[in-house]
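pinging the channel bc i need a second pair of eyes. not urgent but kinda urgent?? the chain im working w is below, pasted from the shared doc
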Amino acid sequence: MIASVAGVRGGIIPCHSGYVKFLTTESFCLFFSYSGAHCCLIVNIHAGNENNPLEIESDTNLHIVKLSWTDAEDPADYVGLPKDRHFGWHESNERFYYGIERRAAGRPWMPFTKPPPDQLPSFDKISFVPKQLIVHLDLKGAPPRVNQFRDLFEFFKKAGATGLLIEWEDMFPFEGDLEPLKNRNAYTKAEVESILGWAREVGLQVIPLVQVLGHLEWVLKHAEMVELRENVIFPQAVCVSNPNATRLVRLIIDQVLALHGDDVEYVHIGADEVYQYGECARCLENLYNRQLERQDLILEHIANLSIYIRNEFNKRVLVWHDMLNVMEEKSLEKWSLGDLVEPVVWAYAENLEEYLPLELWKRFERIFKHVWGASAFKGADGPSRYYSNVNHYLMNHLSWQKQMNTLVKEKVKLNFRGIILTGWQRYDHFAILCELLPVGIPTLAVSLATLRAGGYDSRVDELTARVLGCDSFRVDTTLLSCTFPGFGIYSSVEQLKAVLADLDESLYSKHEFQGWMNEFSIRNNYSSAQKLVELCPQVRWRVIWFRGFAASFKTQLNEMFIPNTAAEFFAVYVEPTVAHLQKLANFCKRIFAMSSFPRRPFPLQRHSTTGNTTELSQEGEDHANMMLLRSQ
């Protein structure tokens, strides 16, 4: 795509694809290439001097075109492009598109992100648009089957992602001393090569995430690794003073980066939520002998591994920000962290002002050369949330835009690389599964569209619907007909959510249920059949529904995910309800089979965990069914 800047004294400058950077709240700079030189088109947002709308400043390697205009003028006259909105580039298909549009009558012109009209809406305000949008794949839970990755990657690219953060954990095909640590269903080397190849084919850069300090539960849970723990009780963090722990971490890094090859520019080493450090005997001795501060242990570990990765593999190192944020600035400088790592500031709340104060950004501006952000599209709204709360995650991304716009306004000069949209599958290695990937895909789509557009309104909903292959999309509405990967799983989870909600409303909250079908009644087989006449048929049809639902849903899960995912999901989110309903159904049979009841007081059944689920004889079951039919 080639655009032109007209009106420059004596000619037209051909401008090829480039990128945009805000300089102040009153100007932005459009960088592009021109005749082998790097150019910057500085656009002043405020009204200019109509007698001198253009002037050129240049040096050996940089051509700067300053464009200004009066409020009464049309800047499109000067840029030689359509007057409504077109100007520059947008990061779509590796191009940038930029626009200018009047905010309101009598008000200055303002820049906004604007691709071609059929792709993204525009917003009449300064909006932050990250250059890189990285989608996080958390494979420590519900890892997809290999044949699913191609469709997923093509969808991510279509939705606007530029890369992937892949957290392999125990699904990586570790060898040698690490082989006993991997998942029994781990991918093979050939499968990982295929996965990485498909990412490369669709144009998604891959960033491997390798935890090197905390969240090493997948390693430290093993009996032979207990001695590497910082605290023997908690298999969460390694002892950084133990040389065997350092060797183990380096071995993990070696194998992961060797298989990823030269295509990888970055590696993320995690290092978040380290709750135990400087506690064990080795660390205490290390602190005493070398006269170190407790925080030096973590910072030295991160610094040494970052140097190792840079020297051995020539990769840039990313690290979660939370531990760096609580360290003293002088300690970060002591270990040269500003030169060695790029912090990824993660925050998943709906309002980030409390979590990311301006001082945090100013502090990182002083220390680090580059900074990333991390939002969430799933897995950050409760460890047992199995369905998506789209509005929560959308608010998180809008809050991220607000944060970045504030930094522009406050003139905080951060070299912000982009945003990683995290999609956690477990809160940690020991936690249960939360939202499955297909459940989070609609949230991912609207989040990416919002970040790319620079804001959110109904036009973003329309774009999201097209990306998802849906008839329509609304944040607060269940999707009914779509073509995105895993839509069947999304739909089944929405059904499950609706049925479980209906159980509370239509059964558990009923007057008769609470008085005559409670745990006391079940344990002691003591209730009134008259009060159960309406409840028992509801219990029976729900048991039947779950049987049919389980068969189809398990098939969907087994098609998309590796073995055991369906079993675990059902064990957590389905089977407890089915078991309870079956217990209620058995209770109904027993009550309708009973012709008499003991007088009070009678011996009470206490603390039963089985609910007295003794099977009836065939004669007793037939009698119960007959009595139930007669009662209806």
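so The two ends are 74 Å apart (CA to CA). and The chain has 22 helices and 19 strands. — does that match what u expected or am i reading it wrong
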